[in-house]
Amino acid sequence: MKNIRNIISLLIITGVAFLSCDDSTIELDPIGDTEAGFFQTEEQMTQAVLGTYQKLTFFYTFRGGPNNFLQAIWQLPGDDLTTEANHPHEFFSGLNGNNGQLNAFYRFSYQLIARANTLMQKIEENGSIAYENQPELMDYHRGEVLFLRAWMYFKLWNTYGTAPLVRERIVALENAFPPNSQGTELLDQAILDLEEAAQILPEAWGDANKGRVTRNSALGLRGKALVFRGTVTGSSADFTSAIQDFDAISGVSLTSNYGDNFNTAMENNEESLFEFQANNQAGINNVFLDNDSFAVVGDIGAYYGHFVRRPTWVGNTVYSATSTLMDEFEPGDPRINYIFDPEPGLVTNVVKYIKDGNWTNNPGGANGSSRNNPRILRYADILLLKAEATVRSGGNLSEAVALLNQIRERARMSAENEMSAVPSDYTLTGETESTVLEWIFKERRMELACEEGHRWYDLRRRHLAGEIDLKTWDFDSKRIDLEFEDFHVNFPLPEIEVIENENMNQNAGY
Prior knowledge:
Layout: H1 42-54, H2 57-60, H3 72-75, E1 81-82, H4 88-91, H5 100-130, H6 136-160, H7 185-200, H8 215-233, H9 236-248, E2 272-275, E3 285-286, E4 297-298, E5 302-303, E6 320-321, H10 323-328, H11 335-339, H12 361-364, E7 369-370, E8 375-378, H13 379-392, H14 397-412, H15 433-447, H16 454-464, H17 495-500
Parallel strand pairs: 3-4
Antiparallel strand pairs: 1-6, 2-8, 5-7
Helix pairs in contact: 1-5, 1-6, 5-6, 6-7, 7-8, 8-9, 8-13, 9-13, 13-14, 13-15, 14-15
InterPro entries: SusD-like_N, SusD_RagB_dom, TPR-like_helical_dom_sf
Protein name: RagB/SusD family nutrient uptake outer membrane protein
Main location: membrane
C-alpha cells in the first residue's frame, strides 16, 4: 500500500474528446482505458480497489491553505485541541452550509462511496470472468470496499447526523437526488456492510499488501459502530453484539510501547486495525487537487503542519492541546512525553505524530506533509470500547476495569528508562456503573488524545444520549466567541446540495 503512486479513477475512466467526427477519426480506438474495456481482469479489479483506498488521501492531506485541510472537522470541535484561528468548528456559532471544509468532506465522502459502489457493481457483472486465476480475490475485494463505504458512513453520521444513503451506483438521473437518512440509518448501513465484510475479508495480507483491511478491521469498526448506536438508542443488544465482535478479533495485541503507535518505523503493527497509508509526495504532486480526476496526483502525504505551523504562512492556524487535556494526566504518566512537548507555554505543544525521528520528508516537507500514517483504528480503542460496552450492558464491572488496567499497564511500561509507577491500576471499592463509565471516558481521552476526533465523537454521542450537556461544557477554547447549541451536534449539510436536491433538507438550526 505504501508504494502505490498512480491509481485509476473509478468515476472518470478515461473517455476521449474527438476533434471532429469525419471518416478519418470516427473509427479510432479510445486513448487509454474505457469502462467497457476495464474491470475484466484481477489486475484491473485490484487497481479499482486501490483506487477506492486512494480517496482517503483527500481527507488527510494539506489542501493548499489553512482553512482547507479537513482534519479540523473532527479534531477541533472537542475539548482536546484549540486554536486562535477562524475555524467555525472551534467556536460553532460560525458554522453554515457554505463552509468549505464541510462541503469538501461531503463531496469526497460520496466520491469514495461511488467508487465502492461502482466496483461492487462490476464484481457482480464481471466477477465470473475477472477472477479466474484467484477466485478468492472476488470476496476480498468486495469486503474491502464494503469496509471503506462503512467507514465513510460512520464518519458521515458523526459529522452531519443525516446524509443520503447511496447503496448502489447511480447511473440514472431519477436516482441522483436521494433524501436525507433518518435517525441512525447511516450507522445501521455501516453495521450491515461490516457484518458482511467480516465474513469475506482475509485474516491477513502478505507483506506486499500490508495495510489493507482484514477481518479484524471489519470486526473492530462494526463493534465501534454498535457501541455508538447503542449509546444514542439505549439498546443493550447493540452492546452485547459489540462485545461479540470484539471477542472475535484475533492475532492482535497492544504494542509493548505506547509510542510505537505513532512512529513511522512501526506502521501497521500488531495494534493496528486500520491506517491511512501516507507516503512521500509524488513528483507530480498537486496539493490543490480536489476533484476526482487524476491527470495529476493529489498529495499522498499526511498533513501534520497544523501542529507545527507549516507552512509558516498559515500564521495562527495552529492546533494546541488544551490545558484540561494536559491536566487529565498524572505527573509521570509516560504517555505525556509521547503526546506533548515538555517545554511549558508553547503554542505548538502536540508532538504525537512528529516526535523525534517520526517526521519524514525533512522534516515534514515544506507543507508539513509526512509519510507517517495516521492510525485510524487501533486495538487500544477496541479494548476501551469493550469496557464501555460491558458496563452499559450490565456486565461485570471487574471485567471492565481489567480492560482499563491493560491500557494503564502498557502506559506504565512505556517509560523511556525503567517502568513507571503511574498510572496505577484502578481498583473497585464499591464504585457504581456511572463511576466506572467516567473512568473509561477519562482513559479514552488520555489514551486516544489528539487522534482521529475520538474525543469529539465521544462527547457528541454522550450529548445525544443526554449523559452530558455540551451547552454548559468547558471546551477550554482560545476563542471567546464559542457558543454551543444543541443543534451543533449535527454540522450543516452543503447548502448547494440542499438547494439542488428537492428531496434533501438542511439540518435544523442552519
